[in-house]
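Checklist before submission:
- one chain only
- standard amino acids only
- sequence pasted in full

Submission:
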Amino acid sequence: MLANFLSKSKPINFIGLLIFFFFNFFITVFSSFFTDGFSINVMLKSGILALLFFTIFFIFNFINTRNNLTFDNSYAYFLFIVLVVLLLSNLINYKILVKMTVYLLFLRKIYSLKSNKKTIAKLFDSGFWLGIFFILEPVFILLFILIYLSIYLHNKITIHTLFTPLMGFISPLIIFFTYTFWFDKTEEFTRLFYFDTRFSAELYVKSKYIWAIGTTFFLTIFAMILKSSKVLSVNNTFRKNWILLITNFFLLILLTILIPQKTESELIYTLFPIAIILANGIELIEKKLFKDMILYFFLIGCVCFQFLL
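Returned file contents:
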């Protein structure tokens, strides 16, 4: 039943899954009224958070459908929604949602390089968004790997394509330096280049999400292996984006471990490659009964984790 509903990418799917998410979102928000009390400021904050979530879902769906990262279905969007619901109690935070929005805007430019249109502009924009992301979360400078891997995979190596992302990256840094210099806060700028990385996954091992994290990681690796055996033997555009997706996944696993101040909310960054890789794995299943079992497993499991743990 669920597999049939998600088998096509239709506006009703997008709307239906949004309703499902915001139902869970408002339950989470209203439950906080009993502890924090009701006020106009709380309502305004909730409205802004809802708008940020909507923006994230829209950009995710846009990247996936525009670049054909899955077939014409809603599996990836569904998985992204339910995994966000899983982490929802940790994501009621402006900063993490703004960072996620910037991260997705960066990825939008990376995956769109498959097209030959406006290549230089896309590379500048990718560097620009990464520059903003670097200001917000310095360790994510490692995502430069994705930019140059995309340039290499799409055979666009020229002197212009190699230096354009750097120019884009430097642009927001110049603006930020000017701001800190004007207000005599240059230590905030220099602090960006002192990487306080702590290679530790201890928080995740002790997390209440440990079983969810472990199961999702295992299924993602399994889907990756199954799909790769079919994709990597064919030299086409999807093969290039598949390599990007795999690199994206392992980079994000590394970066979530390197982030110095872990709160579990940073796991949201991994959900983009995870949802799309899992969706590609589900597409390989021929029997709808098995598809339904997996989809209901994620749906019921994530809702139970959200409200019972």
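Reviewer check: The mean pLDDT is 87.
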